[in-house]
Write a structure and sequence with these properties.
The complex is a heterodimer.
Chain A (H helix, E strand, L loop, with lengths): L4 E3 L2 E4 L5 E6 L6 E7 L6 E7 L2 E5 L6 E5 L5 E5 L8 E8 L8 E2 L3 E5 L1
Parallel strand pairs in A: 2-11
Antiparallel strand pairs in A: 1-3, 3-8, 4-5, 4-9, 5-6, 7-8, 9-10, 9-11
Chain B lengths: L3 E2 L4 E5 L4 E7 L4 E9 L6 E7 L4 E4 L2 E6 L4 E6 L8 E9 L8 E2 L3 E6 L1
Parallel strand pairs in B: 2-11
Antiparallel strand pairs in B: 1-3, 3-8, 4-5, 4-9, 6-7, 7-8, 9-10, 9-11
The chains are: A mainly beta, B mainly beta.
């Protein structure tokens, strides 16, 4: 069974640029969620995708957007990067049934200079 | 305002003893609670969960206790092992919320000393 994989693992961007982060869900999982974890904080929910549509969103501005593809993989896009966007971005997948447990990838560490 | 609070940023325990990690929440609509463990440079790993209809759930060395009246849950690890050293996150889910929308605390760093 393949777990959740994310790419890239680390990247550095400058303020105002755009970034795309990628996630492959665990096999058999059709729901993907994205989280932002700032230093010293717990993960914070950005949004969730199910059947290629966003079906839940946290308190993040519209410049955070996403996609889910037919193979359940997903992308997180962030436009007009700000210094405060520097964080670990975590992707999690789940089976889309009543089970709540999320399975996380190792994350993408974004640094905005 | 934080809805899930882990008030102890760190905890140090001797190997073989009990580790007790605490978590408080503010929203009585939360109906499911989870604990995750995170090692450096890895994503959080699911550890154990409990539904609001229960007050205890046990899995091997790990037991979670839920006190709904106090809006408090705790994770007990007995006996503690050096490999348990990690950051532990408490998370909750509200009834009716999207499945992937978990609210996390800030975490407690557990150090188990040999």
């Amino acid at each position: 069974e393949t777990g959740v994989t994310q790419s890239p693992t680390h990247l550095i961007k400058t303020r105002g640029q755009q970034v795309t982060l990628r996630c492959s869900s665990q096999s058999g999982h059709n729901t993907v969620s994205w989280y932002q974890q700032a230093l010293g904080q717990g993960p914070q929910f950005i949004f969730q995708y199910y059947r290629e549509e966003e079906n839940g969103r946290g308190n993040f501005p519209p410049r955070f957007s996403g996609l889910q593809f037919p193979n359940y993989s997903s992308e997180l896009n962030v436009n007009a990067l700000e210094l405060d966007d520097s964080a670990l971005y975590l992707c999690a997948s789940s089976s889309g049934t009543r089970g709540v447990e999320l399975f996380f990838g190792e994350g993408s560490r974004l640094t905005v200079l | 305002d934080q809805q899930v609070k882990q008030n102890s940023p760190s905890l140090s325990v001797q190997e073989g003893r009990i580790s007790i990690l605490n978590c408080d929440y503010t929203n009585s609509m939360f109906d499911y609670f989870l604990w995750y463990k995170k090692y450096p440079a890895e994503g959080p790993t699911f550890l154990i969960s409990i539904s609001s209809i229960k007050d205890k759930n046990e899995d091997g060395r790990f037991t979670v206790f839920l006190n709904k009246s106090a809006k408090h849950l705790s994770l007990h690890i007995v006996p503690s092992q050096p490999g348990d050293s990690a950051v532990y996150f408490c998370a909750s889910k509200g009834a009716g919320g999207s499945q992937g929308n978990l609210i996390f605390g800030k975490g407690t760093k557990l150090s188990v000393k040999p």
